[in-house]
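Methods — Computational structure assignment.
A single polypeptide chain was analysed. Its primary sequence is given first, followed by the predicted tertiary structure written as structure tokens.
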Amino acid sequence: ADAQLLPSGERAARDRMKHFIESGILARYGENRNLPAGQHGSCLSQDLRFGLISIRELYQRCQDYAAAHPAAAGSVLTYVKELAWREFYMAILHFYPEVFEHEFNPDWRGLEWPSTDADFQAWAEGRTGFPIVDAGMRQLVTTGLMHNRVRMIVAMFLTKDLHCDWRQGEQFFHQHLIDAEIASNNGGWQWSAGTGADAAPYFRIQNPWTQTLRYDPEGEFIKQWLPELKDVPAARLCEAPSDGRPLVPGYPLPIVDHST
């Protein structure tokens, strides 16, 4: 897929902030934020990461917008909660610096991760046979960014379907994300793995098939990043191939049975 890196610098960052707030994206954020196709987020994570905009100013501008547009207040609150997660993970890192190397929850320290190098490589290269996972990984290595909902899907897939150590995924993300911020990256991975603060429990797994049906039902995101699947009917992207044959020649079959 064709990809463009975001323009860099403070001026570009401030233009993004203005566009996000004034164009209506913020007003519809609560409704659309989980849709990976198109722009439904702020695209400001890397700007916050490198200090190109102030989180205090961003927060205040969001509050001012909510005050002027009461109908959008719920959507604004949803976005502000995402900013709060960022601050929360920074606090976790400050008070519990051991999360760099260990599970936040001591109950899970020493847990075995019985994965294979081949499984991890298939995930890293976007060839798991799960289109939503592969599309997300290709987006990451091509653009240095990944949609937040898709980050959760691929992280849970690596840890809970492939049983790979969350540290492997954390490191891979940190190497490739242009918004890689160590507290949020660590917190997100530990949340997804079920080992972190206020984490998704070990039995909570985001099923890639049902997540696709819910958030990319037309296959728009998948087909953007997996152009080899552009002619596959969208419904076939939402479930494992029932006939045991690849979606198209050359595209892998699912490397695990998710239901198992």
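Note: The two ends are 32 Å apart (CA to CA).
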